[in-house]
Task: structure prediction
Amino acid sequence: MIKSHIKLDSKSELNQKLKGHVFHVTPTQNMPLIEKSKAVLPNINGERDSLFGNTVYGFFRLRGCVSLFDYRNYGSEEWEAHAHKCAPTLLLRQTDSISILFLSENEYPKLESWMKWKEEEQWSQRVVPHVEIGYPGSLLFECFTEHLVVEQVSG
Result:
């Protein structure tokens, strides 16, 4: 896996690196645990707090999936309409650095679309249409191609 590090000057700078990809975001302090378990685990029982907000009623969490960001349609009208609801940089308000793990394209066929939320009319469950996507079950560390550590430039 390729590992790189950037100091973030602007969100648009990061978005250019993210567009076209599916990825998981976590505080960098979580990486030793992920590396030890060799997987990103779904938060099935709500045991791990999400710094992205209250996910008690998260659509993908309730399905036993790992939630990922889907930036493959970055910039489309539909994507733009929802992207502001949850940004990968949100965690930088609460932690010094974030780790972005890019999913291998070989894993894309396994992804579950947010469209199931709409088809099943699961209106009481939370999802970010066009931006959030789920991976069923544990997501093995070997399924990621790149680990990008991002720090916010202060001042």
Observations:
- Residues 2-152 form one domain.
- The beta strands are 2-8, 22-27, 39-40, 65-70, 97-103, 132-136, 139-140, 144-152.
- The chain has one domain: 2-152.
- The longest helix spans residues 11-18.
